[in-house]
Amino acid sequence: MTATAIQTTERRIVEVRNLVKHFPVDGSDDVVQAVDDVSFDIIGGETLGLVGESGCGKSTVGRCLLRLIEPTSGEVLFEGKNIVGRPNKQMQALRREMQIIFQDPYASLNPRLSIRSIVSEPLKIHRIGGKSEQNDRVADLLQKVGLDPKYADRYPHEFSGGQRQRIGIARALALNPKLVICDEPVSALDVSVQAQVVNLLQELQDEFGLTYLFISHGLAVVEHISDRVAVMYLGKIVEICKAEELYEHPLHPYTKALLSAIPIPDPTKKRDRIVLTGDVPTPINPPSGCRFRTRCPIAIDECAAIDPELREIKPGHFAACIRVDGYDSSQKVETTQ
Amino acid sequence: MSHLLEVSNLKTHFQTRAGLVRSVDNVRFNIEEGELLGLVGESGCGKSITALSIMRLISPPGKIVDGSIRFKGEELTTASEERMREIRGDDIAMIFQDPMTSLNPVYTVGEQIAEALRLHKKLDRKRAWAGAIEAMKEVSIPSPERRASNYPHQLSGGMRQRVMIAMALACDPEMLIADEPTTALDVTIQAQILELLNELRVSRKLAILLITHDLGVVAEVADRVCVMYTGKIVEESGVDEIFANPKHPYTQGLLRSVPKLTEIGSAKAERLKTIEGTVPSPTNLPFGCHFAPRCEYRLDMCTEGLIRLIDLPNGVKVRCVLHDEKKKFKIGRERTLADLATEAI
Fold first, then answer.
1. Whole-prediction pTM value?
2. Is the alpha carbon torsion for A59, A61, A65, A67 positive or negative?
């Protein structure tokens, strides 16, 4: 049902163009190429999943979208307005529309503030309503995220991890944002609690028409919650398409390996696992050409020379790999071996 | 026939300011030679404390208050500290979740592995160093001669975990306790480490107690599974059986709340099934079945008395009155067992 809603009202809420973020390395001229020439769109009302392993740049992308980190170059358009280089005053007004939920529900809540202060802080900053209106809003928000409003005067340490994550969600929703960046929101939670929070995020999305960028290394959670998924490797997007398509017909060899590496909670399903050799190279000095080629099972000499662009291989299915051209990739790979 | 490791009625309690915490309460299980037993549960269920109890690494206010741990027939709960030092490493080795904090940052990894060999095998420095390189080779660390001279910070997370495994296995133990060995690692690296553990199990007939919260990991590598909740084992079963036919409502709930890959139909529209509520506070556990307040099949009798671990055919054990033959009649009075069985599935 959500899928049809997207098609009829399809509009881009975020457009990321050639986003680059390089971090200087102390005491040398090297740079960490955390994000390198990344472009994608987020469509209003959808959940775009962003997956990848640690250090691939997925959180940096999320933070660049809010300009919590200043991009090195490139453009981030939020509803058509470029936020890169925008003066801070104007940026603050735009931030009402875009919020973030963090991974660690322990570190992201100030232990010395009551829940009421935490959730109402965005309202105070943006001077919305008087004290009693703010209190009503806090009660309303806590109810929405499944917490009893009578707990508003308690402190974070009195809550469990799952409950704290609900508080973080309430805070993110306080300003009625359009876009919420969810940066590993369930990774620190136990499985049974994880499911509760994922469901809550979906319910809130339906109710408020939220758009999510859902950043996670948990591919199963991402598949469950996302409409489309982008896969990152070493600062680049290597594949992006609809969630079902990605999981059923992955094209990029990295996506294939990643999917085959996930342990499935069903012992009867023994799969042919592609175990990648070696580790992710350092983003200070990434390999030439395709960054995945050093671990790629199907790499050829050209891969070292050509930096593969994200190409539309099937309608709506983009992959950055010169070994993938059209149709069924798995057959193709075998025949060319 | 005796088991390699026999844990029976183990109780490890912590006296805290908030009250007595029964972290491990009446836990019993066995591990056979070459077997991989998965111990699963959510944070705070007592799975790591069980492992530390086996190694006798519980420090005050924690204490093993009752029960027995037998390794090849030898009682560990009463063994001298000196004897335990021999057993740790020689017979039972342990690896932890975070390889960065378990390695000493100011020594090279080769020195750290060699130290274990010098202490346990009484090798001289030169031989110990050669042994360290050999051990690193066995866990497939590329160019081990060079890597041995690296400090932990020069290695990646996956390489560090390999070093930990090399160190654990350097003295040829018969059993390895792996406490969340892949939790801190990325999936592609996790796959490498699981593969390695599996290989070692076969090549060395190594018994492994794998502690994890990840049901996927368990399904991939375990032979048998124990599920823990609030310090007690609530279900023990073969790996195929427990995933195909989980008996305890907690196990059922846990399996349902995991998002699964490539489910047929629209995953988007469906919500995940959850377990209502949260784990009770360890100092204030409910009477009777600890899971009862969250259980959808709760009966009055669940909160009336202690719930036994019931032995079912094929080595399956479950701590739930619904499977208690002796209470069948009583359950029948509340609801018919047949109804429950169909509902449960």
1. 0.82
2. positive
